[in-house]
Amino acid sequence: MPALLSPVLDLLTLQGTVTEAEAVTPRIRRLRIESPALADVAVRPGQQVRVMVGGGLTLRTYSIWRHDPAGAVELCVLDHPGDGPGARWARGAAVGDRVRLRKPEGTFVLRPDAAHHVFVGDETASVAFGAMLAALPEGARISGCVETETAADRLPLAHAGRLEWLTRGGSSLPDAVRRLAPAPGGIAYVAGEARTVQQIRQVLVREAGWERRAVVTKPFWAPGRRGLE
Ligand SMILES: Cc1cc2nc3c(=O)[nH]c(=O)nc-3n(C[C@H](O)[C@H](O)[C@H](O)COP(=O)(O)OP(=O)(O)OC[C@H]3O[C@@H](n4cnc5c(N)ncnc54)[C@H](O)[C@@H]3O)c2cc1C
């Protein structure tokens, strides 16, 4: 990266170091990135960071799996079949690598006071769900459906036993939500592949009678599109 760009990047991004890199499932790698600049930031469960990948000038977005107030974020990145620069970065990331990222941001976050929390999405969404679920107490009312390619791709989520787990190719996520038929009155968090997110929103709003504003959606990726955000 040209040295002239460095001061500009310092204003826009923070620098971190990869301090842990491990496979949590066969296709998902957990990366811990430490930086003193991450010590004094407030992070809401579900928020994300944008990471500079592909040699530096490409931004890709990843949910924060865990924030360590001592100064670190942990990401869980799926090695998807589209093989983009983000997936390649995560596949090759090694302890000691320097990385630039933007501060935590985003509004796809836990609404802690909801009477019922409904989580619906795929393996990419399950990272944000993991942070949100970890912040919920034992007594919280939780349900939802998570779809992964295989059972081995399931992240270890808090309250995982209260979710229905699907494998791709069987029942679709919208059909699983139809069967679940959650009664209105809570908050639904829906994320993952863009078209599926829209279909699930329609099931909740048109078929199950949910208010639109009670269904919080976030498209994370779409076939053929690059770096959705
Ligand atoms: C708010 C937010 C949070 C996100 N959090 C996470 C996260 O925690 N972990 C994570 O792994 N991803 C997460 N994503 C999704 C991730 O940012 C995208 O998948 C991103 O596009 C990957 O970049 P890439 O360079 O690997 O592929 P790109 O260059 O962006 O895409 C190349 C091609 O790959 C295909 N593709 C992309 N993603 C997938 C996928 N998941 N499955 C199958 N095919 C795919 C598409 O066909 C695409 O055209 C998040 C996205 C958003 C918006």
Describe this structure in words.
This protein is 21% helix and 33% strand. By secondary structure, it is α/β, with parallel strands linked by helices. The chain has 2 domains: 99 residues, Beta Barrel (Elongation Factor Tu (Ef-tu), domain 3), CATH 2.40.30.10; 105 residues, 3-Layer(aba) Sandwich (Rossmann fold). The protein has a 5-stranded antiparallel beta sheet. It has a 5-stranded parallel beta sheet with strand order 10-9-8-11-12, sandwiched between helices. Strand 8, helix 3 and strand 9 form a beta-alpha-beta unit. The radius of gyration is 18 Å and the shape is globular. 37% of the residues are buried. Flavin-adenine dinucleotide (FAD) binds next to strand 4, strand 6, helix 2 and strand 12.
Characterize this entry briefly.
The chain has 229 residues and is an alpha/beta fold. Helices cover 21% and strands 33% of the residues.
What characteristics describe this protein?
5-stranded antiparallel β-sheet, 2 domains, 5 helices, Rossmann fold, 229 residues, globular, alpha/beta, 5-stranded parallel β-sheet, Elongation Factor Tu (Ef-tu), domain 3, binds flavin-adenine dinucleotide, single chain
